[in-house]
Amino acid sequence: MVQDIIKICGLSLICIIFSYIASVYKSEWQKPIVIAGFIMIIAKTLPLAKTLIDFFGDACAEYGFSGIKVIIAVLAIGVISDVFSQICRDFESESIGTAIGMFSKISSLIIILPLISKVFELIKTILNAE
Amino acid sequence: MKKIFLILLIIFILQIPAMAKATDGIDIADYLPQDIIDEYNISEDYDFISESKSAFFEEFINNRDLIIKFLYQSAALLFLQVAAKFLLDENDSGILKCVDLSANIVFSLGIYGIIERITAETVLFVSKTLELSAGVSALQTAIYSAFMPSAGAAFSKVQTLVISAMAFVSQKLFVPFFACLCAVSIASSVFGEKYLSDIIKTVRNGVCIALTLIMSISLIIITAVCKSATNLSVITQKTIRLASTSLFPIVGSLLGDAANSVVASFKAIINTSGILGALCIVLMIASPLVIMVLLRAALLILRILCSFFGADGLYKTAADFGALSDIAFAFCLFASIMSLFLITSISNFG
Q1: Cβ–Cβ contact B72 with A under 8 A
Q2: pLDDT tens figures, A61-119
Q3: Is A130 helix (H, G, I), strand (E, B) or coil?
Q4: If you measure CA to CA, which chain A residue comes closest to B67?
């Protein structure tokens, strides 16, 4: 894990150096270099995130925690939208970043709707049963 | 100090099955005095202790597994909440609120299964203790009435009144009342309104005060009837005093002061019905109390973790459901103290 973070830091350092060189000598190459660096770092991060998601998936399957998958999905949406809206802001596309944020919030609400309806059903069952 | 005691208690309780396994080959008859073996006609083939023990521990292990599963789930929820705070930008509060809300809902749905079981166990517990009191009182009041007809009849009326009142409360009032409170707790966890939590806490305090008052009045009446006919033993008098003063502190020091009443009543039981009688009663009433104690300990651990990691929503939900388990626990203690007192007063009557 420590080696991974060192690799990622090294990669980001190389990206920054190339981006700086590009900004001095060939400014039109700067943004593609940043995007390439971003994709490479994300490609390194995804297996780690997969380990975490697999761990929770196994726990959910073993103990029957069905609701936790919803929270993981909301968290994943939040993290992905956060990262991409930040990139949009870096590229001075604030409105696209805001749209991504809006989309992530609405999709999170849609994902947790079954949980909310489950709660209302439960309250209804409790009050009707007795 | 109370928290440390509770944590030590939970560690001890988790070890009980291992201790039970270690004592499997031991014959209890080797450790009992000969007069008790003769009195209760315990033969070598009679294996009541092992059978009761295995049934009790089977249920105990089920309850323990249920609570451990609940703790795992809560720990996972807490981890996800902390991860959300850690990973997401604080400006992105919409997603954070979604994570908090879904964590609270999943927690409520998880704990509801346990609360439902506790409700059923509480009703079963009260009906078991009432059956025990009614059985013993019917037999012994009949015997006493033969020797002291007037006092015996008065005592019998008081007992019947107390037992009928307790049966009515447990069967007709407790379940719907508890279901309503459960619904309020779930709503509180979803909406996060402070006044809903306040309602639950106020109801919990009110129930404890009401149970204390009912118990004190009942004990005063029974004591008056008993004293009109005979002198009570020192242990029973001690039981009355402790029982009438100890249930109220249930709000503050549940396992401390209220336990004194049970211990004093238990001493009275040992005094009157012997070790085996006491063991039968313990095995009969301990099982429902175990899940409540385990749940209380689990919620306490969870609240400590929540306050440590700053998960306020989960902390509040855990506190609300803790108040619910307090009510069930108070009701069980009330029923057990009343029943133990009825049995001891019957045994000392005359």
Answers
A1: yes
A2: 776 667 778 888 888 888 888 888 888 887 777 888 888 888 888 888 888 888 888 88
A3: coil
A4: A63
- Cα B129 from Cα B23, distance rounded (Å): 28
Contact of B247 with B211, CB cutoff 8 Å: yes
Question: Strand, coil or helix: what is A93?
Answer: coil
ipTM of the complex: 0.76
Question: Do A129 and A69 belong to one domain?
Answer: yes
Separation CA B339–CA B265 (nearest Å): 9
Do the Cβ atoms of B335 and B165 come closer than 8 Å? no
Test B106 with A130 for CB contact under 8 angstroms. Answer: no
Is residue A59 a part of any domain in this protein? no
Tell me which residue range forms the domain holding A103: 65-130
Alpha carbon B227 to its chain centroid, in Å, reads 30
Chain B contact present for A89, CB below 8 A: no
- What is the 8-class DSSP label of residue B232? P
My answer on whether A82 and A130 are in the same domain is yes
> Which residue's entry shows tokens 């956060």?
A82
Of A44, A47, A48, A65, give the one whose Cα is nearest residue A56: A65
Q: Is B43 helix (H, G, I), strand (E, B) or coil?
A: coil
Q: Is residue A19 situated within a structural domain?
A: yes
Residue A76 lies in a domain: yes
**The tokens of B110 are what?**
């998880």
Rounded Cα–Cα distance for residues A35 and A46 (Å): 16
